[in-house]
Structure formats: C-alpha cells, structure tokens
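Dear all,

This email documents one entry for the complex benchmark we are building for the journal club exercise. For each entry we list the sequence lines for every component of the assembly. Then comes the predicted three-dimensional structure of the complex as a token string, followed by one or two observations. Please use this as the template for your own entries, and keep the labels exactly as they appear.
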Amino acid sequence: MPAAFPFSAIVGQEEMKLALLIAAVDASVGGILAMGDRGTGKSTAVRALAALLPKIKIVEGCRYRCDPDTTDAACAGDCGAHSGPGRKKACLAPIAVVDLPLGATEDRLVGALDIERALTEGVKSFEPGLLARAHRGFLYIDEVNLLEDHLVDLLLDVAASGENVVEREGLSVRHPARFVLIGTGNPEEGDLRPQLLDRFGLCVDVRTPEDLATRVEVVRRRDDFERDPAAFTQRWKRKDDAIRRQVQKARQRLAEVSVGDTILERIVALCAAVGTDGLRGELTLVRASRAVASLDGDATVADKHVRRVAAAALRHRLRRNPLDDAGSAARIERGVAEIFTA
Amino acid sequence: MTEARPAPLATEAALIAALLAIDLAGLGGVVLRGPPGEVRDAWQAMLRGMLPETMPVRRLPLHVDKERLLGGLDLAASLHAGRRIVQDGVLAEANDGILVVAMAQRLEAQTAAHLATALDTRRVPNPEAPIDVERAADFAVVALDEAVGGDDPPSAALLDRLAFHLDLTGLKPEDARGARSRAEIIAARACLAPVTADRAAADALCHAALSLGIVSLRPPILALRAARAAAALAGRDAVAPEDLIVAARLVLAWRATQLPLPAIPDSAAADAGPELDHEPAPDTAIQDAAEKREPPQPDQREPYPQEPGQQQPGQQEIVLDAARAAIPAGLLARLRAEPSRAVRGSAAHGEAGGLRRAQRHGRPIGARPGDPRRGARLHLFATLTAAIPWQPLRRHDRTPLTNGNRINFRRADFRVAHFKDRAETVTIFAVDASGSAALHRLAEAKGAVELLLADCYIRRDQVALLAFRGRSAEIVLPPTRSLARARRCLSALPGGGATPLAAALDAAQRLVEESQRRNRSAVLVLLTDGRANIARDGTPDRRQAETEALEAARALRAQRLRAILIDTSPRPQAQAERLADAMGALYLPLPNADAAALSTAVRRNAGSADARGSAERGSRLRNLGG
C-alpha cells in the first residue's frame, strides 16, 4: 500500500479538516458532505486522517470487523470467528476507508447471496458488502450528488441506524455497520435532494485556494511527497502524532465536556433565527461544538467553539428555494454575529 | 491555425512521448485527440519504441465490464472447477505499463471513475476483492479521444489526472520521428529521481495555472513532474526555466479556461510578494503550534523571500507566455465568443451513471438469459429452473463435473433478473428571445420556464436551455441537473433580434438526438410566437423562414418526442398553431395558459402523474403575469 499523504501536511482546507477531526472524535455527529471543486484534496484528507488514527481492535477473522471488547452481539455471527469456546482472538487493523464507486449496485453495497458458494457448494450464505467493510471506518463517496437516489437513501438509513439489515433473496442477516459517511460533490454538476442534505451531519465548502502562495505550497508539498514518500512522512510524523494524541484525548474527554444552559439557549436561538427545519440542526451543532471543545481541551462548550462549526452544521439545513444558490452562509454568519456577540 | 504554433507539432508530439516514457505513472498519461488512423498509430508506435519491449500495453475497450476491468471471479471456470477461480482485470494487467482507452469520450462515467481512482491510488480499486489481495495498478493512460463536433469531451475527472493533450490534426505519420532511443530514455529515467525543483519553479507553474483559470490543483502538480522529466531528458540535475516552459506549454495550456491578462510585468510580482510572508495556512491552533516545532519548514521557506526580486517575476512571465502561446487558436476564439461555454465540460458530465439501463433496480419484471457478470443480477431461481431439466442428460455427459455438485450448470443456464425502470428525462427549453417575443412577454416566458424548472426539480429531471434570436440558436445550458445554473442562465438571457425558428428547431433536434443516444427521453418545451423571419442561411426572408420552420418541425415530429409549444404572442396565432401541429406538439397559448394548466401539460407529457402543488404554482404565475 502506498503511504498516505500526512494529514498535518495538508495545506488549507481548515473547515474540511476540522469536520473530519470532529467525526473522528464523535461519530454520532453524522456524515460529512464536502461540496466543492475538483482536485482540492478532499479524498487526500480523508485517507490521511484514516491513516493517522490509531488502529482498532477487531475479532480476528470476523468479516464484519467486530470489536472484541463490546458485548453487543449484533454481528451476524456467520463468519465463525465468534463461535467456539474461550476468549475471541483479537488483532489490530487500520481504520478502513472504503470507496463507493459511482454506479455501484445495491448488492455490492449491502451484501448479497454468495452466488459462488450457492452454485458450487449448494450453501446459502451471505456475502458481506461494502457496508460491512466500512464498519468502524469511513465510507467515502465521490460525487455523491450523482449517486442514484435509492442508494443514497439506503446509505443514509444504515448510517443513521448503525445496522445493516438484509432481507432479500431468502437471506435474513443483520450486522453492525457504523461508519462515518463522507460524500463529496460539485454543486455545478447537480443537486442533492434537500431531504438527503439534511441527513448529513456537517456540510463543508471546499474551495481551491486562490492565492498563489497557498497553491505553490500545495504543489510543493505534493511534489516532495511523491519524490520520497518515506522521508516526507517522516518529516511530518511528529505533527501527525500530535494530532493523533489530540484526537485520542478528545475522545476520552468527550463525555465530560459540559454544555451549559446559556450556550444551549443560544444555539437554539441561532437555529430559530436562521430558520432550520426540525431539530437535527440543534442536535448536530451541540454535538459538533462539544467535539470541538474536547479537541481544544476545554471542559465546557463556549461561544468560540460554536462559532467554528455553526456554518458547517447548519448551512445545508436552511429552508430555501431550490433554485436559489446563494445566501445561506451569509444568513448563518449574520445569525451568529447577532446571537454570539460576546 | 497550425502555422501559429510556437513549436513544430512534430517536435511537440515526440517530446510528449519522451516525457511520458520517462515518468509513466507520475504523469498519468495523455489524451490523443483526433480520428483513428495512421497518425495515431504512428504516435503510439513511437511511444512504444521508447519503452522497454516487455512493458505491457493493454487496450481498454469501451464496453469493458466490471469484472474484466477490475478482475474478479471467473464464474464459468469456477463452476467447472468447483473452486474459486479469480482472474486479473485489465487494470492489474496494465500494471507498470500503458492502458490505451479507446473512444475515451464515450467512456461510461463509472469506468472513468474507476480509472481515476486507480490513477490516484495506483491500486486496482476493487472493493470486492479480499482485503489482503491488493493489486498494483501503476500505469499511464493513453486516452483516444475521437469526439467530433458536438460530442462531449472525455470525463473531466479523467482529464484532470492526465498531464498531456496532443491534437493529432495537422500531424503526418512521418512526423512520428525525432523519437528518442530506448537507451536515452533509460538514461533519463535513471537521473529523474535526483532532479530538484526550487520553489520558484513551483511558483511559476502555479502562477501560470492560476492565470489560465485552471482551478484544480492537479495540473500544476503534474506540470512540475513534467518539468522534472524534461530536466532529466536534458541531463540536468535541477529544473531549469526551459523545462518549466515545456511543462507549461504541454501540461497547462490545453486546460486554459480563461485568457491570461496581457503581461503586466511588475504587478504579478508585487501581488505575490506580500502573500509570501505569511504562513499559508495559519488557521488551527494545532497546526500553528506544530509549525513552530518543525525544523524543516523554516528551511524550506528561507531562500524564498530572496528570490522574487531577481529571478522569479521574469520566470513567471516567461512560463506564462509559453503557455499563452500554446493555447490553440480555436480556443481563443471560443473563449472570446461564448464565455458561458467555458464550463461546459464539467456540466456535460452531470449524468448519473451514464447509460441508465434498467439492469440493477426498479420493478422486477422477470428473468432472461444473460451473463450475470455484466452488472446484472443473477436470478437464482430461474437459473435453477433452466438447469434442472438437463440434469439427467448432463450426468451422462463425458465431462462430468466434479466435487459432488448436485446440479450441473452450463453457461447457457444463467438467467439474470430483468427490471423495468423509469428512464431519465431531459426537458429541453427552447426560448424565443427575439425582438418580437421580447416585446411581448419574454419576462413572462422566463417566469413560466422558472415554474416549470421547479417541477423538473421535483422529478429530478435534467434540463437544457436553448435560446434563439438574431441569426442563430445557442445552447445556453447543456443538459444538467443543476437547476441553479439553469435559472442563472435564464435570467441573464438577453432579448432582441430576429426569429431564426428553423435554426432553433434544428438545434433542438440535435439535443434530442443526443439525449436519446444516452438513453434518456426528451421533452421539448418551445416558447415562441411562431413568427419565423430568418431563414437557415441567415437571410431575412419571412416566407422562406416559415417554410423552413415547418420543415424542421416535421423533422422533429419524426423523432416521436413529446413536445409542447407555448405561444407567447399576445393573442393566439394561427402560425404558431400550425407549427405545433407540424411537430406534433401540444399547443398552449400563454394568454390562456395559467401555470396550473402549463405545468400539468408538461407533467403529463413527461409521463409523470404527479400533480402536487400545481394549484399553488398556478396562483403564483397569475400574480407574475398580471
């Protein structure tokens, strides 16, 4: 496997990087939608983060990448790794980044009857799909806005419930599938249905940097990396380690970070002021702010944390005319400025 | 046009081949634009002549299936052997070699996406393969682009990852000389790795890319690699200005989406100057803190501030000039004439999954014989039913299947599920923006289109916008799902001029044909007052114009498409009605058509019975009209 580009060496993309870190700290924030231009390093950032995060423990041989330390027996258990007496053997595995290619079939995504075994051995067995492989990792969809709608529905449903339930072709299988859904796309090439937009936790705007210095820096670092990946990775190792530790600490601290009543009221007021539908906006904003506070090492959520994620948590939830493409970011900014004056 | 080229085409072609041979995988590959023929073959032969003889060259046919592309289970062989037999795909076979993509402009979006992922990760992107079986796919792509006229260019995602573009028009087969010898290339390859590029080099290429309106960051990265290859070819150990010029000319120029401003020598340097002082990404606390501890950073940056004064501005300009000079003349003209088309390439690819055959989903309507590997789903039950009657016979067959298979299958037994799916619809709006229409109610027509757009949004239709006035019809917006863009284009639509109705209908017909080729059904909504007064050849002859318009309308009728003609004149016109009749369209005079009727009509024609919210929209159009 070629080495992944170091996360800390990614120039710019602050909003995207923050959103990824938030998702790494608290997966319950929901998926990330990154809308923006081509060639801005969206997939580089995702792969970099996955490479940076600590390896996870999985039950050896489990096709669903189950965690040996949890007792929830949601795993379909047909992989044979869980049966047998004694302690399950565990091994370490890197966090998975699974690419969902455009035009993937439903079979491939949820899993299907193992045709090979059915025909050669006459056994009815389940062949896990991409959802199983993405368990406890990232599911990355390039050009999510071009993905067929029924697949997006299915994905969001599984992402929200954390479980893949297969009832087809005489199979009845359920297995855990908790992953961070990361969708990217270019708004110029098509819209995402508003009801799907809302199901993504955070929505970040990814733009190509336009100032020359930043662009030069990107090109140079990429060039250095390609010439000598090992040396380049080594050079950025300390920064990557620092981020890894930061994420690990933030995960441990997360439960202790408190959200005061005042800040909660302000968040609710903000959502009311900009006019978000439903309560998902508030919930996501609270969770994301808490994750940011935890990343910063703060014990309570403060205004500054909310400010950093307000746009990402809300910009895709504003009620708007589907034909009106501008204005949501500005509205949030105005709302934040009014309510979070402190 | 060809004589305006700064470097002889033949030299250029040989240079591209040499650079590609030096850094195959790093440069991604080349697009060969032009019809199939001797020239193209000669160029490919030249490239092969520079590469080791053992290097694999695989040709990717247009309709490669997923199994052959990525590799996978060989179903028939597995059944025969009674065990899993896996075969490599074309991508894995092309490892350390060249992948020739035939008819790249017609490549399915899915295949293009797989190629793009393989180029990024240098691995076969096969999520179905067992995790530990990763196949390397380190290859360069030679994409053969045979697009003519109105065809779309190859997938933007793929183009973004290929360094070079070579237009073969004007090239002769014997031009494929000047090739470097194999030994030269091997020598250059050996000294590629140590070639250094200073900051000014990256700077000059980024500056050039930015000035040419190249948004993506991949091209400057590729350009830098090309510059390095050029240096290695010349035997230098550092990238020199002439290498940068080559890189800008070959990698950047063909991607230009805007014309660089004429050189203003000092301002570029002045612009760049102050920005260099601050840290490019000073945002997060993590990065800041880490930045201070990191020793190599300051080292990298240190020589930088000294340079702008002496070498850099000049170099930037030279590189940009080189790129500017290499922009093909046709592009210049096109950019000047129609800025709205500059982003066309990306828009044209807003197509979900390309050919949307009803193979995978939708309402199941039974099974038919077929190959389950081509993205279709095996219908197990039907397959069994097909195989069982033959069992007694097959048991006596002289090639008994092994491993105690209870049922012997043959390839012919395979049945795949057959689904019925709603085909995607493209709604084409052809808007008469001529003086006579503008006078009357262009604004109203725009309003009506906008309401219909909202309907399209609900149905997830694609929309295309075609405007005609003056002497010609123009595709303002090729089929896209981005309604925001459709609306922007619509509101920016100017009015005035004559009514070239025949030209408009011709253009509409071309769009319809194109959509049908892509397996989409088309609905044409024509908004006009029907007063054609410009003939196809541009002469203002009312009678001829009318005849031609009727002719074009009849041709459209032959397409059997669903069409609606909305008469925008103040009172219903016999002319418009005749036209609607000729093209087999539903005729709706706008004065009587309130929006409810309008959108119901379109909807009925688009084959959807969804009638939600039409009343509300109706009242909105009335307000708008009155």
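Observations: Chain B is about 45% helix and 15% strand. Residues 227 and 243 of chain B are 5 Å apart (CA to CA).
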